[in-house]
Predict the structure.
Amino acid sequence: MRNILKLFAAIAVLAIAFPGAVLAADDGHGTEIEAQDWSFAPPFGHFDRAQLQRGYKVYQFVCANCHGMKLLSYRNLGEPGGPQFSEAAVEALASQAQITDGPDDMGKMFQRPGKPSDRFRSPYPNDQASRAANGGALPPDLSVMAKAREGGPDYLYALMTGYGEVPEDMKMTKGMHYNTAFPGHQIAMPNPLSEGVVEYTDGTEPTIKNYAKDVSAFMMWAAEPKLEERYKIGARIMIFLIVFAVIMYLSNIAVWSRVHKKDHAAKTET
């Protein structure tokens, strides 16, 4: 029983002391992903609402030009655990998108302003149109990108801040761009960020690093919107297990102490 208590204590200490156990990932191509300081790091992290709102703004004005987020609806932006835009703000953000709907009474499709219940508008009607507009490359959907790539938000941040000059000893394929974080260091996507490309209204400095961190956090929320709730459930389970282990340990002592007393009494009588 003492070993069980030690195990629970060790797990709790490790979870608190090393929330980002995998701080760097090597993809086999000499690429290292540096860990960032995230507010949502386990085991008791939470999303920064202001950061998520800024991250959505970066996605809206930069990423959404090529990438979709088809698993999200505009109403998700106002739900607990997320950016928590007001109801009026969600309606305004949704209305900025032109959604293809129909058919109408004449059997034709038409465009209308978006509604909170609509999915995020995709920049292209289909994959073929997307490839045609991007030189044959297909920009991936970003709905679960933060969970689909090893390193998660750390990788996304490193990717967006990893553009640089091509080393003299490296031969680049035509149409590719050098990136220190991308496997092989050649990526079809050009550098999407530049200083001041998105205006922040809350006093946050509009730098590439802040853009990258904010939109990476937003994509982490998009991929795992129930993260805070999961952390809370996990904490409750850990507390229950620790309390249960203590109760079992004390019960073990109480039961065996009576057995030892009986054995001692029997030996004394003989």
In short: Confidence is low (pLDDT under 50) at residues 7-29.
